[in-house]
Amino acid sequence: MITMMLAIMAGWLVVMLLGVPIFASMGLAAAAFVYWGGFPGLVIPQKVAQAANSFPLLAAPFFILMGNLMNSSGITERIFRFAKVMVGWWRGGLCHANIVGSVIFAGMSGSAVADAAGLGTVEIKAMTDAGYDKETAAAVTAASATIGPIIPPSLPMIIYGVVAEASIGKLFMGGVIPGFMMAGAMMVLVWRMAYVRDMPRENRPSLREAWDAFRGAFWALMAPVLLIGGMMSGIFTPTEAAAIAAFYALILGLFIYRDFKLSDLPKVILDTVETTGVVMAIVMCAVLFGWALSVSRMPQAVGEAITSWTRNPLMIMLIINVLLLIVGCFMESIAAMLILIPILVPVAMQVGIDPIQFGVVFVLNLMIGTLTPPVGIVLFVVAKVAELPFERVTRATAPFLVPLIAVLAAISLWPPLTTWLPELVFGR
Fold it and tell me: Where are the domains of the chain?
């Protein structure tokens, strides 16, 4: 069956390269395995329905809705203004504010693309108006957007947890320390670049300006506190947190900031349904494809091949990191996750790698992939927002891969960076 699966996967890759949507090509590949493997056709609707019937996956549409509401309610401008007051007076201050703003927004949207498209519009304009070149503004915006899926809430973490059957709450907590490490590492790089390039700085804000910015952003800043605090205290689950977060964002837009109108709601809901539909189609087809991989014993064969070279967890983590970084260059992150999780997670579990550490490492690898050509989705979004050629944004963003890979190496080598906080909150 492994030979048959390899032939099907080769055909699937060809079909995907021809432009067939990932969910359709994956579903067709799984259906081909069911047909040629002699399995009853009833397996297909059973596995697809089983994938959709997932309580944790309910969090995805609610977090997507929250991000869309935040982007439509003028909250992004308030967050950036607050970040600018905090660090804008440093040398290269708007670069630092860009990163701080992404950290705050990461606690709301959970999506790199939402961060790049939502905050990016505000950040790039503010930076270019202040005298920064467009390439620098675009590069910082693209790099800082990768923090979004690492700090909770996180759509990729939800998908990983569902497919790998890992605790989504623990995955969320596991991303907190690495997320702040990413921000810190990027700010160190910006600090050096700012002095080498003599970047501008904002005037130091007065206490009145600082207070006004804090007051304007206060209720938006409470969103991450509400989410993380509620999950850490056990008041609600990650799935329930998603529903509460969406409702909170709606209340902010309608009654607190009043920048959102009920007439805007149908468009926001339609955008949410469209995005959720794409995500759900991919997840359902991927679960079916994962079942086909499992039955064909492909994961077991890959695991035996890797562990025949070495059973050292660090060496296996290195091999998987290199593989994921390469895959991230050529495949969209969610599609790569859904294909590779059934293959690589069993390998990691065999050698005793912590599932939470592996999940955070897995997601961070693929977020780095969103900054690498030829299929760097965040690069494409930022290039469109900044109105720059893709190649120029790619070159400008390249230095930021260094701090991101440094953080990846750190969390790969030292598990407590990803496991200490989940164990503190949820226990072992």
Answer: 27-426
For 241-253, what is each residue's pLDDT tens digit? 778 888 888 888 8
- What single letter denotes the amino acid at residue 33? F
Q: pLDDT tens digits, residue range 331-386?
A: 777 777 877 888 888 888 888 899 999 999 999 998 998 888 766 778 888 888 88
- What integer pLDDT is reported at residue 334 of this predicted model? 75
Helix 313-330 / helix 333-350 crossing angle, nearest 10 deg: 170
Residue 358 and residue 365 in contact, taking contact as beta carbons nearer than 8 Å: no
Q: How far apart are alpha carbons 167 and 158 in whole angstroms?
A: 9
CA distance 307 to 302: 9
User: What mean pLDDT value characterizes the chain?
Assistant: 83
Q: Which distant-in-sequence residues (6+ apart) come within 8 Å of 169 by Cβ?
A: 231, 237, 238, 422, 425, 426
Give me the residue label for tokens 């800082």. 144
Q: Which residue has the tokens 């959709």?
A: 52
> DSSP letter at 253?
I
DSSP 231-243: HHHTSS-HHHHHH
Q: What is the pTM of this model?
A: 0.82
Q: Assess whether pLDDT exceeds 80 at residue 283.
A: no
Measured between alpha carbons, how far is residue 169 from residues 174, 229, 244 in Å? 9, 12, 15
- Classify burial at 387, counting beta carbons within 10 Å of its beta carbon; exposed 0-12, middle 13-18, buried 19 or more: exposed
Name, in order, each residue with C-beta under 8 angstroms of 167's C-beta and a sequence gap of 6 or more.
161, 356, 422, 426
Could you tell me if 237 and 231 are in contact, meaning their C-beta atoms sit under 8 angstroms apart?
A: yes
Compute the distance between CA of residue 102 and CA of residue 94 in angstroms, rounded to an integer.
12
